[in-house]
Write a structure and sequence with these properties.
The chain is of the alpha/beta class. It has two domains: 156 residues, Rossmann fold, CATH 3.40.50.1000; 91 residues, 2-Layer Sandwich (Hypothetical Protein, Haloacid Dehalogenase-like Hydrolase, Chain: A, domain 2). Helices cover 35% and strands 21% of the residues. The chain has ten helices and eleven strands. The strands form two sheets. A seven-stranded mixed β-sheet has the order 5-4-3-2-1-10-11. Strands 6-7-9-8 form a four-stranded antiparallel β-sheet, covered by helices on one side. The two termini are 21 Å apart.
């Protein structure tokens, strides 16, 4: 049952394809909506992107007061880290870095799985094919900096990545898992590290209860990296794209007045 938006204290959202187009700076309309929402609610963003990507894609587009910034929480790389605003600076609450030897094993697992599936390396890469995000290792089919128009055509229904993951899990080191990420990506983290873990960390570190939160995301389906939030009991709202997300945020704002 949909909660009373007026009673919600914290809105949690995915970034890519929810608040913004993939790896694209948030547009002015979304920025204004989030700024207005922060006048009523706290706001948290959980995404597979690394912290520098959050700054470039999300934080850099926001124009908010110091008071509103204190109600904003960042959880990069599928909540393997958390940042809050303190004394005008973003500070780390926790960060869970993958050991170097394990990173090497994960890179090797990706190589074997991609070869086994029959992945053809693109002639032109935009950034790294397999990226070390410190707390997460991420595969992006054209590189993590590929233009959106190229990415959206490769795996719109996620079937390719679900097939690759079937091969990948055979080779991953013990205790690690793979999930579908953004438009063309697969994220590898420690088992149990996902957006559901992020919800539990929000409870633990920030004091919000599950019944006081809602989550907005575009991949709340089995195998999607938003799906673990559903298992926590937090009310989830599936959106297709940022335009739908704007509509949800407008509803929350109107209900909170």
């Amino acid at each position: 049952m949909q909660p009373n938006f007026k009673e919600v204290r914290l809105v949690v959202a995915d970034l890519d394809e929810t608040l913004t187009k993939s790896k694209t700076a948030m547009d002015p309309e979304m920025s204004e909506l989030i700024s207005e929402l922060l006048g009523y609610k706290a706001f948290a963003v959980i995404s597979g992107g690394a912290y520098p990507q959050f700054q470039k894609q999300f934080v850099g587009s926001l124009k908010i007061s110091a008071e509103k910034a204190r109600r904003l929480y960042l959880l990069p790389t599928c909540a393997t880290s958390m940042y809050i605003m303190k004394d005008g600076q973003w500070v780390s609450v926790y960060i869970e870095i993958i050991p170097n030897e394990t990173k090497k094993e994960i890179f090797k697992a990706f190589d074997m799985a991609l070869d086994e599936w029959g992945f053809k390396r693109p002639e032109k890469l935009y950034g790294e094919l397999i990226e070390d995000r410190e707390t997460q290792i991420t595969f992006s089919a054209f590189g993590q900096l590929a233009p959106l128009e190229l990415k959206v055509t490769w795996d719109p229904d996620s079937k390719k990545r679900l097939e690759i993951i079937k091969h990948l899990v055979k080779y991953l080191p013990k205790g690690y898992q793979a999930k579908i990420g953004g438009s063309t990506s697969i994220d590898v983290t420690r088992e149990g590290i996902d957006k559901g873990y992020g919800i539990r960390k929000i409870e633990e570190k920030l004091g919000y209860k599950k019944g006081e939160m809602i989550f907005i995301g575009d991949k709340i389906f089995e195998g999607g990296n938003d799906y673990p939030v559903k298992a926590t009991g937090v009310y989830c709202i599936q959106v297709a794209d940022p335009e739908e997300a704007k509509g949800v945020i407008r509803q929350i704002i109107e209900s909170s007045k």
